[in-house]
Write a structure and sequence with these properties.
This protein is an alpha+beta fold and about 290 residues long. The protein is built from eleven helices and four strands. Strand 3 and strand 4 form a beta hairpin.
């Protein structure tokens, strides 16, 4: 008998029984893992606030009772589903939990208003978003892409010499090969030039001295002899105009940085083991003839 009384399992069961009796005497606990559900004043206020935002008025007494009843059903369903393990390996639930964690982390980021210096630094670092764009006016004479080799390049260089001798205002309608591409472009933003002719072509135009026929320049269509007429540099925008947009961009960037720091801190609590699948066996497709 004494030996039985010394058993640790018996002590554990006795302690568990005492704790259960104490919780029952105190009225039980509230939350997952218990059979007691407490709808707090804060939760009721949240239900009322949500209803008011949706319908433009607070709920009537019967409507509030319905909201609370639905909340209790939701709490019961959540606890029962969790107890059954229905939340495990569910992609939608996992994604939603991650979103909530990241939302709380980003919400905790300070809302300090950035200074003019910080805004200007951001604008300078992202000229493609805030600094406007270079604009170009140019003429182009197209040379067919087919057989793009020494013969075609020689033809292009011969045409270039002809155009340079004729000058920038010569009529080019009968020169080169026919194309649907525009022969004359007026103050088109650089990114639009890139969309039409290709980024490589657009960037090459930035290196050409205006007023002189140059080339041949390659695009996705073929070769071109080009005369840059005008190039206007991008203008710096007013900080007053871009401030609201930059503030949003800075807030988003700060949120991303803080989120990365959060994951770095949380990762120290875990040991991650990645077990890669074995190589997929050869299906036999594509084997050489006669191979066993």
């Amino acid at each position: 008998m004494k030996t039985v009384l010394r058993e640790p399992l018996l002590h554990f069961l006795a302690l568990g029984a005492l704790l259960f009796a104490w919780f029952e005497w105190k009225g039980g606990a509230s939350g997952p893992g218990t059979n007691r559900i407490v709808v707090t004043p804060g939760q009721v206020e949240h239900l009322v606030s949500g209803y008011t935002r949706t319908f433009g008025r607070p709920p009537a007494e019967a409507e509030l009772e319905g909201l609370i009843d639905d909340y209790v059903k939701e709490e019961i369903a959540t606890r029962e589903a969790t107890a059954m393990g229905l939340d495990r390996d569910d992609t939608v639930i996992r994604r939603r939990l991650r979103q909530k964690l990241e939302f709380l982390a980003e919400e905790a980021v300070g809302t300090t208003t950035p200074t003019d210096a910080e805004i200007q630094a951001w604008v300078d670092a992202h000229p493609e978003s805030f600094g406007g764009d270079v604009r170009l006016s140019f003429r182009q004479v197209y040379i067919k892409k087919a057989g793009k080799g020494p013969a075609v390049k020689g033809e292009a260089e011969k045409l270039l010499a002809q155009l340079r001798a004729a000058g920038p205002e010569t009529n080019t309608q009968t020169l080169g090969d026919s194309t649907m591409l525009p022969a004359e472009i007026s103050l088109l933003p650089l990114f639009e030039v890139g969309r039409t002719f290709g980024d490589g072509f657009a960037k090459k135009l930035l290196t050409i001295e205006p007023g002189t026929w140059s080339g041949p320049i390659e695009s996705s269509y073929g070769l071109h002899i080009v005369l840059v007429r005008e190039r206007t540099e991008a203008e710096k925008p007013s900080l007053t105009l871009v401030r609201p947009l930059v503030e949003r961009e800075l807030a988003a960037e700060r949120g991303r940085r803080e989120l990365e720091k959060l994951y770095e801190r949380l990762l120290t609590r875990y040991t991650v083991t990645i077990e890669m699948p074995k190589a997929v066996p050869d299906s036999g497709e594509g084997k050489a003839e006669g191979r066993p």
